Amino acid sequence: MLTGCMKQQEITLSYSFTPNETHTYNFALLSKILTITHEIDFKLIAATNDTLKIEAEIQAMRWKGDGGELEKETNEYYKNNYINIPFEFAIDTQGDILENLSYKNSGREEAIFDINSFFIALPKGNLKIGDSWTIERPVEDMVFDKVKTRYTLKKVTENSVAIIEVFSDFKEDNSKRSTVAFSKNLQGDYVLNTKTGLLESAQLTISGFNGFSNISGTLSIHKK
């Protein structure tokens, strides 16, 4: 049984889906130079032991820049290659990725979104307020090759919600390093359902340096 439960101010968290029940999320990445938005459906299609096979289908996707030809071409590419096309991936009940995101019918991998943005890594065992855990994992990026994230359980409410503080620090790929240093980090809160481990919402701020100027923005996710 995959559950989240409270006992003497402690909880355990793991992911639990009802088979074929769809969970839809709105994702928005906002910055000074561009906006990226997604609407994604997630559905459990198979479960064996601690493995969850999940189908993802992007219902809407938009890249908004300066309104020029690049914006038009990018959105046309999204429409032809990603929207209303089923993808799949597999995680374990703690959110570790077992199979990367791939097209369902071909198996060709495609990192069109970060799975761990929607299914964060959960620790095993009991958690109490103030407990932290740290995960380091690879990322698909032109500059960065890994990200180190520290999670801290801030609060558990009476209506089965856990608020988890997140700080992610992206690390440069040394093979791509130039004379200019790049940096990027995300900080904010994730709100999880303690009974299912599933995300209810997330709100993060983005900061860093892209080699020319400071970067700033926000990343938000909300369950429909």
Would you write up a description of this structure?
This protein has 224 residues and is mainly β. The protein has one domain (10-109, 117-223): Roll (Lipovitellin-phosvitin complex, beta-sheet shell regions), CATH 2.30.230.10. Helix content is 8%, strand content 55%. The chain contains two helices and 14 strands. It has helices at 69-81, 115-118; strands at residues 5-7, 10-12, 22-31, 35-48, 51-64, 86-92, 97-103, 127-128, 132-138, 144-156, 161-172, 183-193, 199-209, 214-223. An eleven-stranded antiparallel beta sheet has the order 7-6-5-4-3-14-13-12-11-10-9. Strands 1-2-8 form a three-stranded antiparallel beta sheet, with no helix packed on it. Strand 13 (199-209) and strand 14 form a beta hairpin. The longest helix has 13 residues, at 69-81. The radius of gyration is 18 Å and the shape is globular. Mean pLDDT is 90; it is low at 1-7.
Short synopsis of the structure:
The chain has 224 residues and is mostly beta strands.
Task: List descriptors.
single chain, 224 residues, mainly beta, Lipovitellin-phosvitin complex, beta-sheet shell regions, 11-stranded antiparallel beta sheet, 3-stranded antiparallel beta sheet, 2 helices, 14 strands, disordered N terminus
